[in-house]
Amino acid sequence: MQYKQLNELLQTYRSGENSKCGFRVLAFPCNQFGLQEPGENAYEILNGLKYVRPGHGFELDRNLKMMQKIEVNGKKESKIFTFLKSRCPAPDNFIDDADKISWSPVRNDDITWNFEKILIDHNGQPYRRYTPTVEPKEITQDIEKLIGQWEDETAE
């Protein structure tokens, strides 16, 4: 499950108390993909994770912030996703079958499904997008590269 791997990444790249460049995850729930996020708000979604799936008292790392539920594509697309998509090309040329798309207009840079990931550097600039099938543990090399760039810049 991707939430568990996100927790593991946060534990691996946890910043020290005096670090200004800390690794964080922002999760933006969205119900535009197969109506798979029925929770109305972060509280409901977090309780679903804790008690249902994966359950067993699961909790997100304190550095994984569950944001409010938004739309990431179409006319009502959140401005943060308009910005992110404008700065970072889509990781794939395929969105979905036309009969499965619930938003309009459809654009070639649209988010394709739940758990598409966008890595942002320490200057707030999108670095790379990853398809939903890329597991969080698979982006460690890029995370380490960005942390190294930050360390080089701050050492000067």
UniProtKB/TrEMBL annotation:
The keyword Oxidoreductase applies. Keywords: Oxidoreductase, Peroxidase. The keyword Chloroplast does not apply. Pfam families: GSHPx. It comes from the Eukaryota. One of its GO terms (molecular function) is peroxidase activity. InterPro entries: Glutathione_peroxidase, GPX_CS, Thioredoxin-like_sf. One of its GO terms (biological process) is response to oxidative stress. Belongs to the glutathione peroxidase family. This is Glutathione peroxidase. It comes from Stylophora pistillata (Smooth cauliflower coral). The lineage of its organism: Eukaryota, Metazoa, Cnidaria, Anthozoa, Hexacorallia.
